[in-house]
């Protein structure tokens, strides 16, 4: 039997404690699979006195994760602290510079500093593994980097944020408001006290940036992603989607276009019978399209301590076996600069919901502005707004107009909405949700 792989683990929270339990529960099988024992020797967290529900007896305690990362007593550093800068970055860098392997679940760190860290792994001779950073327990990183390496990937899309999917699923199933479902998600521990990172789409964008780099061989560029969150989705939108045969999902999409790689995260109406529309609650799913494989869809638990630990330990086993792959699927020097596609050229159908004053001609003016922009309409429906509105016939009385367009471009829709707003034909911000036949 080979020498044990000595592990140092920083971060003893939700994921860190699950990793320790998994390593202990499956010790024998893991030794067999890895061909050598996986030996946890040292840990680091902030509070040495916290009861974490697991025994830390026999492990050396480091209050400084950077010192742990470069300690000669470990071969593999497991970063489960979180954050994009500061100690997680310093510790990861220290381990890689010391030639050690690093396993991390930290998408924020990778989305921001992934290329720098991959270069440090290359020059230090270590491994940078991050299966758990995207899709929790779903093995999408290995799928893109290893199993699908024979393909030219043309598109990938997925539901990458469990919190948003939970909120949208509840809104649809129970007709509840966004605010109610968010409060429930917080109570159940699916959403943070400050949920903005999830509901504004930033968490999904970080994951998408990582997948884009792996799939298309380009440098990471999270700042080039078009991002819209789900906070503006109302029960009315959900009900309209339902009526029309769609479901609203926060979708992350990356695809090749003539003008570069398009990356976007936004609420999307998907046909109810499509595979991704049927992904509910906190489950995640990713579809990948390649020239030889066609389409592959992976789905499963996108978060949670145990599911994430499953991915972390898979990476640790790889390290123990001596498996090495370039972190982003090819050497850093051969990653292409990211060329951003123009979002405004994005073709597709659109759902629009406008608040229109109840006056003669307003409805017709909207239909005309659409026609003037060359936008052909699949349907246009006028509804009275729910209770609280002024009496009918009064311009203060608002009607809700929902429009479904045939395929058009983002630019054409935005121009038409600009004209309608400019003419004073609507009140407040229009709602615009893209429709995709995915
Ligand atoms: N939770 C999930 O479902 C999930 C899923 C996929 C990926 N991830 C990623 O996994 C990582 C960990 O997430 P988590 O949910 O386990 O976080 P968490 O529960 O908040 O745990 C974070 C841990 O890091 C420790 N820590 C914080 N600052 C530290 C410092 N300066 N020095 C040493 N230790 C420090 C904390 O110590 P104390 O306990 O002493 O405060 C805590 O044990 C993040 O990158 C996250 O994005 C999480």
From TrEMBL:
Gene Ontology MF terms: homoserine dehydrogenase activity; NADP binding
Any one GO BP annotation for this protein: methionine biosynthetic process
Pathway(s) this gene product operates in, as recorded in its UniProt entry: Amino-acid biosynthesis; L-threonine biosynthesis; L-threonine from L-aspartate: step 3/5; Amino-acid biosynthesis; L-methionine biosynthesis via de novo pathway; L-homoserine from L-aspartate: step 3/3
InterPro entries membership: ACT-like_dom_sf (IPR045865), ACT_dom (IPR002912), Asp/hSer_DH_NAD-bd (IPR005106), HDH (IPR016204), HDH_cat (IPR001342), HDH_CS (IPR019811), NAD(P)-bd_dom_sf (IPR036291)
PROSITE patterns associated with the record: ACT (PS51671), HOMOSER_DHGENASE (PS01042)
Active site residues per record: 207
Leading EC class: oxidoreductase
Residues at which L-homoserine binds: 192
EC numbers for this chain: 1.1.1.3
Coiled-coil annotated residue ranges, if any: none
Zinc is among the record's keywords: no
Domain ACT positions: 351-434
Keywords, in A-Z order: Amino-acid biosynthesis, Methionine biosynthesis, NADP, Oxidoreductase, Threonine biosynthesis
Keyword Hydrolase: no
Positions that bind NADPH: 107
List of residues binding NADP(+): 10-17
Family membership noted in the UniProt record: Belongs to the homoserine dehydrogenase family.
Designated name of the protein: Homoserine dehydrogenase
Species of provenance: Afifella marina DSM 2698
